[in-house]
Structure formats: structure tokens, C-alpha cells
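Example 3.2
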Amino acid sequence: MNLRVVAANLVVKLRCFYREKTAMFFTLAFPIILILVFGTIFMSEDNVSYHLCVQDLDRTQSSAESIKTLELNGKFKITTVDPAVNAAQYVRTNRVNLVLVIPEGYERSLLQRMMLDDIKASVTITYIYDPSSSSVATKMEILNAVLAGMNQKMSGKPPFIKSVERSILTKKYRFIEFFVPGIIAMAVMTLSLFGTVDSDTELRQKGILRKLSTTPITRTDWILSNILYQFILAVLSTIAMLLVSYAVFHVSLHIDAWLPAFILLDVFAFVGIGMILTRFAKEAQSAAAAANAISYPMMFLSGSFFPIELMPGFLQKIAKTLPLYYVNEGLRASMVFEDNMAALRYAAVIGVFATVVFILGILANKWEEGRS
């Protein structure tokens, strides 16, 4: 082993890395971004507070005090729900995962128990919940613990407060049914973004793009063929994921025209982002580092793996600006909830975004910029 050769080769590689400013920036920035994102999400886990919607049908001093107890002991941020609205519809419309309903007659039953010593007096509160959220089970566990503490104050007697759970869905779903659409959205994003970045930067570096401008093929033909190629790969990947999910986990998902529609919108959106990246990061290493810095935080912030409710408020707002969030929610609306109106809203948002970035990507790239 010749140490001088090793040292000389190392110096050459370090100088090349230093010269690729974009690659150096994203290579160093990417882990820092991850630390900032996940550090912000998971720091002070002991102080995490959950958002809880409460519908008080009793509207008495006793029910108000019980809500205050839930807020203090359960560390909940309470939002009151108008007693006149349908709680299940409120969950669907406002995209919350749980509404606790305190029944009418709460105070009357409490007085019977405390003043008249009537051990038969009790109330049943209702958890109206969205099982698509992985955090809803944690919420209900915390609620049950707080209610158990309230019942314990009446020791030696049957529990005064009982609870019953009611899902907003007519069919029972497991978490895997909500997990699969998010994985489909994430996989299509990764294929489209990195496929575009890897292909375009390689062809640009080799000068092939500039040479293509001298052939009969137009830039529109070239871009359209790339879109179709990425779409075919995305469809094949989706089919593979669905087959495995059905075969191994026996998932129950609704498949209709919305699935290929969201896959196509996903492809357009991230192919557009990929074309923009290759315009400003022309070296393959730089473009790949930039794609990593964009895609990895996005897949964790958009709700593919865990609910955005676990994040601080400002990160939740950021999550709702990300295109992958709307693909995730759109696929779940169509495949799980079978809610065509919700799917249409999410498709409209991602459709506008995909149109804008795709047009920008086309305008940002010119064949004559390819290097021979």
C-alpha cells in the first residue's frame, strides 16, 4: 500500500467535493435538517399535549368542571363543539380524530350519586373517533386513565363514569389500511423525484440532452415519454405493494379511478420538482443530495408514517403546505373513507401544485444547456 497515492487520491476527492458547492451544502444540510425536524417533534415528550374536542350536551357546572379535570390531568388542549352539531360529521368535516361527548343529565346523575348515595346512578360518555389516526388510541388511553382517577374518588362503589367507543366508519379498519396509502404516495414520490434527478443529471453531464436538440424528437415528446415512463413504474410499484398487502395482511381497501389519478398527479408534481432541481444542481451528486434534503423531511412531515398531530403547531402548518400531505390524504379519502368529495378537494390542491411546478420545470430546463 502506497500511502502517498492514498493521500493524493483523498486530496483530489476532497477538492472535487469542495468545488461542488451545491453537493457540499446539501450533504451537510441534510442531517442538520433531520435533527432540527425530529428534535422539534420529539423534544420534551413528557410535555406533549393532545388536541381534544369535547361536546358538552349537559352544559352544567359539573360537566364544565369535569372538562377542566380532563384538560389538567390529561394535558389536553380542549376545543368545545357546539351541542347542536352532529359529532360524527364534525370529525369528518374538521379532520379531527376524536370527539368526547358528555351526555345530557350528567349533573343530575352526579348529584344522585354524591348526595343521595345512589350507587346505580351513572353516566356513559361517548368517544366518537376516526380510526385512521394512530394517535387516537393513545388519546383514549389517557382519557380512560383520567376517568379511572375520577371514579376512584368514589372508591368502594361501582364506577360512575363509563365510556363507549363509536367509530365514524361503517366498517372496521385496521391501521395497516391507513398505512398502505401513505406508503404508496411516498414510493411514487421517491420513484418520480429520484428517477428524474438521476436521469436528467446524467444525460446533462454526458451532453446527451444538447445532442437531442439536433434530432427530430422535440422537448415536449421527450418530457411526455419520461412522464409515461415514471407513471408506468409508479403503477407497477403500486400494484406490487397492493398485492403484498392483500396477500400478507388481507387489507380491505377501495380501489377506483381515484388511485391512478392520484398516482399521476404525484408523478407530475415530483417530476416537476426533479426538473427544477436539475436546473440549479447540475452535478449528479449535488442533485441527489438536494433531492434527499427535500424528500426525506417531506415523507416524515406529511403524515405517511405518523400523525402530524404529534408535531408542534408550526410544523403542522408546514406539513399542510407539502404536496405529499395532499396525496396521502387524497388516497386515504378514496381508498379508506370512500369520500369522493374529500378526494376531489385534495386532488384539486395537488393538481394546482403539480401544474405550477411542472411548468416551472419545463421553463427551467433547456436542451442546449447540456454539456458535451
